[in-house]
Amino acid sequence: MNLINLLFVQILVKIDLHRLTNNDIILIMTKRKYRVRDPIHGLIELSEKEVKLINTKAFQRLRRIRQLAMTFLVYPGAVHTRFDHSIGVMHIVGRICSRLKELESNDVNDRDVKLMRFAALIHDIGHGPFSHVSEDLLEKHARDQTGIGETREKIHEQITVDIIQTDPEIKSILNDDERDFVVKLIKEKDMRDWRRNVISSELDADKMDYLLRDSYFAGVKYGQYDLEQIIESCRIDTDRNTTSLVMNSAGIYALEQLLLARYHMTQQVYWHKVSLISNQMIIRGIDLAIKEDNTEMKELYQYDENDKENFVQRYLNYHDEKVIDILRNCEQKKAREIFNRLYHRKLFKKIAELPLKEVEDARSLPRLLEMADPQKQQWEQEIARYLEIDAADVIVHKRQIRNPDYGRRSKILNPESIEILDEKHDVLRRIGYYASELSFVRPPGDDASLETVQVYASPDGWNLSKKQKIPSELETDIQNILCSG
Questions:
Q1: Helices 205-218 and 82-103: crossing angle, nearest 10°?
Q2: SS3 state of residue 390
Q3: Whose CA is closest to 246, among 390, 82, 49, 103?
Q4: Are 261 and 224 in contact (CB under 8 A)?
Q5: What does each C-alpha distance from 277 to 108, 271, 397 come to in angstroms?
Q6: This prediction's pTM
Q7: Which tens digit of pLDDT belongs to each residue from 197-224?
Q8: CB 422 within 8 A of CB 249
């Protein structure tokens, strides 16, 4: 044993070095811990393997992918990234598992905790530039390229799986069994297992972190809730051969806080008009570049299931700023114009909104609900003719009722799927049972009341300043175009 090793161990732990054998020193060094300071959770402990995962090229790329795309155009502090969010999710997963291990020692072991932390850490590693915003394009152009009928979630998750299974650095850190476990947790949506619930469910660690983190960096209070009580109240329910993550009834008011936080963050931050408009401009600019044969954007968004390894290596070269730089200087004129507008915050203006609950025509409503691409393009062309501007400068967009975390096309909240364990009576109940005790189980109004079709357009060319109010007759005319299309 040389002097350097002795000094290292002496700094690491306060013990009598004269009583250590060589084997003792090896054991101490393998149990070394690392810490990182996080503004949401304070000091977060990391294992050596977790540090190695964080230091891979694939994970470091997440530093350059903002959590909320261009929401910083309205909330200047919202420049946080998938990098810090992923570490935060890993930390919460570790805390939940540790709590469950205290209570359910037979159902939770150290291997579970270790592997679930790995899964949480790299669950977002397949995100493309601008996080969820451009995933519609990934679905659309992957479908066009391969003919597969995948949903957006499946393609996004498939890229995450491809990275985990093919990236050389990750393969050198996680063995086959570890990678298989992580892939199973990410991919198997119907898996009836508490471990899957912790990673992805209505009560998962992802939501617990992003609400607190998005709220903090946006500078708003809407996302605050009692995380400590939520974790304290987590339980495992066993039914035959399946297990699920539930909460005991002591945590029901903390759960109510979380549901309220999610609702208000959606209304005030995720659905802020500047966020929605900038998101749609990103999608329009990238889509135009692909249609006009921009090689780099086609390389990024045309998923190749027959050449996954090479696709992954190309995909990992792209991030927010690289895409912005490419499209601000590309040959495709309209794509270049849109991304330069975004860069200088010269945004399109919302010129009309049509709540679907107000549509009475039984022929129009199905078209508005479906929002198929050919119909959408027809509306954009008709509105552009009416405004006497280019059709590329008009965007018709249906504000989806979807969860803001993974962009799922579903109800904004689905608390009915959350189960509450009444430990006193040993009864498992749906949250609706407690509706009389809670001021909020579902968001005010039904889901249909939140479905709207919005129309954005460049204000250039039709004499409307940024602050000028849209004439009511103009909005009415555009609503009529939508209903008669």
A1: 140
A2: coil
A3: 103
A4: yes
A5: 45, 10, 9
A6: 0.85
A7: 999 888 899 999 999 999 999 999 999 9
A8: yes
